[in-house]
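Q: Here's a chain of 42 amino acids. Please give me its 3D structure as tokens.
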Amino acid sequence: MLHCFLSYFLCIALNQWAKIIDLTIDLRNTITWSIFSQYKLH
């Protein structure tokens, strides 16, 4: 029972981490793209 609960909790935590990592990658891509486009404009 405890093992099942632990694996369920771990699965949720991993899903949350995946969402957070996706958000950070999106944010970094957006920042990089805005810096790159500003650099190309000048």
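Q: Can you summarize the key feature?
A: The radius of gyration is 18 Å.
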